[in-house]
Amino acid sequence: MFGIHARSIVHSVERVKGQHEVGGEWSPLRQKLPTTVVPEPLRLQHMSLEESLFAVPIGLIGGLFGGMLGIGGSVVMIPLLDLTQGPNQQLYQASAMVANVCSALSGSLKHRGRGTIRSDLTSVMLPLAAVGAIAGVLTSNEMQPTPLRAIFGGFLFLTALLEFSGALRHKSQNEEQHTGALQGTRLKCGAVALCGGVVSGLLGVGGGVLMVPMMRSLLGMPLRQSIATASVVMLASTSVGAVAKNATITSLQDSHGIPLTLAQSMSLALPLATAALIGAAIGASISYRLPLRGLKLVFATLIGFAGVRMLLQALAEFQTMNAAS
Fold it and tell me: Containing domain of residue 295, as a range?
C-alpha cells in the first residue's frame, strides 16, 4: 500500500510539473504563487505636485547652462535625471525635448535684444534642422535603451573634450561681435543645421552643443553670435523633435521592457520645462557679463563626469545581458 501511495505522489508531482512548464496552457502554480514585480525607475503615471519637485532644480540648472552656452539644456538635464532617478533613457529624452523648446525660446528672446542673432543664416538653417530632428527621432525609436544610453554617454564625453580644448584655446578677441561676411557658404550653414537636428532628435539634446563649435570652425562666427544663432535654430529642431518623440512614445519601452506613456513624459516635462524657461532667461542675461571660458570649463567638467558614468553603466548592462544569454 505504501508503494501505491508513493507512486501516486510521484505521478501527481510530475503532472503538476508538466502543467508548470513553459508552453502549458494552464498552470495552477502560476495562479497561486505570488509574482515578483520588477521595480521600474520613475513610475510617473500618478506623480503628485510634491513628487515632481525633484525635477525643478534639474530643469533650472539645465536651462541656466542652456541660456549661457547656446545649448538646449537637456545635455545637462538627462544625465542629472539618470544620476538621481536611475536609467530611463527614452523617457528622459522625450521629456527633456519639451524642456528644450522652452529653454531655446527663452534664450532666443534674450539674445534677440542684444542683436547677436544672424538672421541672414537662420532662413537656411531652420528647415534643415527640423528635417534632421525628425530623422534623429525615428532612428532613436528603433534603438534599445542600453545602446542609446551608451551613445549618449559617449557623446557627452567627446563634447567635454571639445569644450576643454576650446576653453584652453580661448582668446578674448573671439568674443568681439561683428556682422561682416563669414567664411563659407549657405551650404555649410545647411550642413551645420542638419547635423545639429539629427543629434537633437537622436539623443534628445538641443543640438547647440554641436552647432556652436561647428559655426565657429566652419563659418568663422564669433562665439556670442554662434550661441545666439544656435538658440534660434534649436527652436526648430527641438519643437519638431519634441512633437515627433512624444507622438510615438507609446511604442517605446523603458530598460525593464515596460511600455512608456505620454502621461509619464508630460508629468516629468512640465516641471522641467517651467524651470528651464526661468533658468534660460537668467543664463542668457548673465552670459554677457561672465567670462565664458570659466563657464565652459565648469560645463565640460560636469558633462565629462556624466558621460563616463553613463558609459560605465551601459558597459555593465551589456556584460550582464551577455552573461544572462
Answer: 53-324
